[in-house]
Design a protein that fits this description.
Strand order of the largest sheet: 4-5-6-7-8
Number of helices: 12
Largest sheet: 5 strands, antiparallel
Structural class: alpha+beta
């Protein structure tokens, strides 16, 4: 029987599904209600439907991920490419996406799922002068892999990926299998599988086409041109998804919100009671300003009202979970420190969050740089050193205050600071292009005929 999945894939696949469902949002979760929000014992199906629909999902995980990616990409990355692969700047991927889009996708997947694969390839019918492209695969599509020592170095020697093919029948997948045995070889298979519990068994695997042995300048390739990115390294081993803890607490918050809003629904409805000689004839049928009750002598009536601390305890628990999500990295939930959190603890939490960002940026940058340098060597040997990719590490918005700008300009006019110092502060305060060198800015100022002279002091 063909082995098509790594031993850890089945368990991790459930984790990936959970993270994606939470990131997708409230509608997805409510449609999959029993998976994440079991029906309480004794509740009817109609009540359960009301219970699920009445809950409120707080999309903290998705907002946090969006904020983290935005913090990195708010400044345009620095990308330098030799002429031969310059087309990859605007069409870097198989789908034709630009490098900027690839970087965003890689950051989003790496920070949320902890895993993202990229494979460098040439078009099947490559026209003269065409550039390579990068195919991308999310964590769910990385099915199996193997790393081995080759010539004293740890290398990726086997990689099986689920390759999207919308033309296939339901239940049939197309797998891309990359091997190093001992040269780089590409194979494709159509695979039909059946699942038994958490185990996956192959029913049928059929190779599509012949083996493909890529070559560059007439020479075979001695490594698989692929990288698997995690927030911590470029190894194939699975890492715990960084967003898993936050997603688990986000789900706990949703489950508790369902209980809270169901309790409010049950206890906030007006519920009258009547005691005395009541029968079907004299039983009140309506309630409200238009209803008139005539009760038998000695009968009494009233309204049931909720008393107790149960709902207040649920509300306090919801607040605690919100604070816990903030502690786990949801900086966008609170504009400061969490409940019962000291200033020093808040600073440590903030540094921890930025360390995930910093590490993820390092790995994504290294992975894309590696593939682009391989692409440069494929197309024009000796030009790999001309490739440069630099993502910004300035994650915090630092827009300069108007009063600070006025003080800086006055200090420069008075001769207290140099022109270079002024421009350096403007760059740090994001009032000039952060990618532009100070010398280039000075040259632009000198050649700009529209500049007005400063008024005399």
């Amino acid at each position: 029987m063909t082995k098509i999945e790594h031993a850890t894939y089945a368990e991790m696949s459930l984790t990936y599904d959970k993270i994606r469902d939470v990131l997708h949002g409230e509608d997805r979760l409510k449609n999959r209600g029993p998976v994440y929000l079991p029906r309480p014992e004794g509740m009817t199906q109609a009540q359960y439907t009301r219970y699920v629909q009445g809950s409120s999902f707080y999309a903290v995980a998705e907002r946090t991920l969006r904020g983290m990616v935005g913090a990195v990409t708010r400044n345009t990355p620095i990308v330098e490419l030799p002429n031969r692969i310059e087309p990859m700047r605007n069409a870097a991927t198989f789908e034709g996406n630009a490098l900027d889009v690839l970087i965003e996708d890689a950051l989003r997947e790496t920070m949320s799922m902890g895993r993202f694969a990229m494979v460098l390839d040439y078009p099947v019918q490559a026209a003269p002068g065409s550039a390579p492209f990068i195919s991308t695969f999310d964590a769910d599509s990385i099915l199996d892999w193997k790393e081995q020592l080759v010539d004293g170095r740890q290398k990726l020697t086997y990689l099986r990926l689920n390759e999207r093919n919308d033309e296939l029948d339901n239940g049939v997948e197309q797998h891309l299998v990359l091997t190093l045995d001992p040269i780089y070889t590409v194979r494709r298979f159509h695979v039909q599988t059946k699942r038994t519990g958490d185990l996956t068994q192959s029913v049928e695997e059929m190779q599509v086409g012949e083996d493909i042995i890529p070559s560059v300048n007439g020479q075979t390739i001695d490594e698989i041109p692929a990288v698997i990115v995690s927030p911590y390294n470029l190894k194939a081993d699975i890492e715990k998804p960084p967003f898993l803890d936050l997603v688990n607490v986000n789900l706990a918050h949703w489950r508790l919100s369902a209980d809270y809003y169901w309790s409010l629904y049950l206890t906030s409805q007006p519920t009258p009671w009547v005691a005395g000689s009541i029968n079907e004839k004299n039983k009140p049928q309506q309630i409200g300003s238009g209803a008139f009750w005539v009760l038998p002598e000695g009968a009494t009536a009233g309204m049931l009202e909720f008393t107790g601390a149960g709902i207040a305890a649920q509300k306090a628990a919801l607040d605690d979970l919100t604070a816990q999500m903030a502690t786990l990295g949801a900086r966008m939930v609170y504009d400061g420190k969490g409940r019962n959190e000291t200033t020093d603890t808040a600073k440590l939490r903030h540094r921890s969050e930025l360390s995930l960002l910093h590490s993820s940026v390092n790995m994504v940058e290294a992975a894309i740089l590696k593939l682009l340098r391989i692409a440069a060597d494929w197309t024009s040997p000796g030009t790999a050193d001309q490739v440069n990719v630099k993502l910004h590490r300035d994650f915090i918005t630092a827009q300069m205050d108007a009063s600070v700008l006025t003080a800086l300009v006055k200090a420069w006019q008075a001769g207290a600071i140099s022109h270079d110092n002024l421009l350096m502060n403007l760059k740090k305060g994001e009032l000039m292009d952060v990618n532009r060198a100070i010398d280039d800015e000075k040259e632009m100022i000198e050649t700009d005929n529209s500049m007005l002279p400063f008024p005399a002091a």
